[in-house]
């Protein structure tokens, strides 16, 4: 993959910043969760004030990877969290090499141990955390969004909870995600809606792209 060498730091910053992006992706209707529509409104407001900076993950890149996870299922947790990392997959080579070196340095390969929050007290994982976060920040071109929802909220889908969940079930099925019971599709539809917003924001000017979805 060929990439022009920027003349100075400002050229590099311009090259790595997304320009002329269409942010009107999700319809502003009750068919979509309110927080997704509100997030889109905030992005549009920032763009209008010329305060929005998004990473350019569509140029010099062939595939966009979307990773998602959720937490807060424990009985003593007051919140549900949904996290989404959208990044330029073909630009993660340096991150992969740095993480391999980190894993070797702290002893996470003998035996192999996955880095997981639930095992944060495990010595090698605890020692790796600072470098791990720096590697993510410095070597992964993308953006991370975490949505935090208080469990006391009766619904994240609007006032007419049942009809919106029925719509969510239908939408997931029509887009190839299988048949889900309305009560079981909340997390999946939230993931789908946010991934759709982010992925379309990233690739809307490209004629062809590969999307890799990991959880």
User: What is the CA-atom radius of gyration, in angstroms?
Assistant: 19 Å
Oligomer: single chain
For the residues shown, what is the average pLDDT? 79
Shape: globular
Largest sheet: 4 strands, mixed
- List the helices and strands in order: HHEEHHEHHE
- Low-pLDDT regions: 203-213
- Number of DSSP strand runs: 4
N→C terminal distance: 27 Å
- How does the helix and strand content classify structurally? alpha+beta
Report the sheet-strand fraction. 15-25%
Spatially, the strands of the biggest sheet line up as: 3-2-1-4
Percent range of helical residues: 25-40%
User: Helix segment count?
Assistant: 6
What can be said about this structure in brief?
With 215 residues, the protein is an alpha+beta fold.
């Amino acid at each position: 993959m060929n990439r022009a060498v920027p003349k100075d730091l400002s050229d590099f910053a311009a090259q790595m910043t997304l320009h002329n992006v269409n942010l009107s992706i999700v319809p502003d209707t009750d068919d979509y969760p309110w927080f997704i529509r509100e997030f889109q409104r905030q992005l549009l407001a920032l763009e209008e004030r010329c305060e929005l900076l998004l990473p350019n993950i569509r140029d010099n890149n062939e595939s966009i990877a979307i990773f998602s996870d959720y937490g807060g299922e424990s009985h003593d947790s007051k919140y549900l969290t949904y996290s989404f990392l959208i990044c330029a997959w073909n630009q993660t080579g340096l991150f992969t090499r740095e993480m391999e070196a980190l894993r070797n340095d702290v002893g996470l390969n003998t035996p192999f141990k996955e880095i997981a929050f639930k095992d944060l007290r495990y010595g090698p994982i605890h020692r790796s955390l600072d470098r791990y976060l720096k590697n993510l920040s410095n070597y992964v071109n993308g953006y991370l969004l975490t949505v935090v929802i208080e469990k006391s909220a009766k619904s994240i889908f609007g006032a007419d909870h049942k009809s919106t969940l029925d719509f969510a079930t239908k939408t997931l099925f029509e887009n190839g995600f299988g048949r889900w019971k309305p009560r079981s599709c909340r997390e999946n539809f939230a993931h789908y809606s946010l991934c759709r917003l982010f992925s379309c924001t990233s690739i809307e000017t490209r004629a062809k792209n590969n999307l890799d979805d990991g959880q």
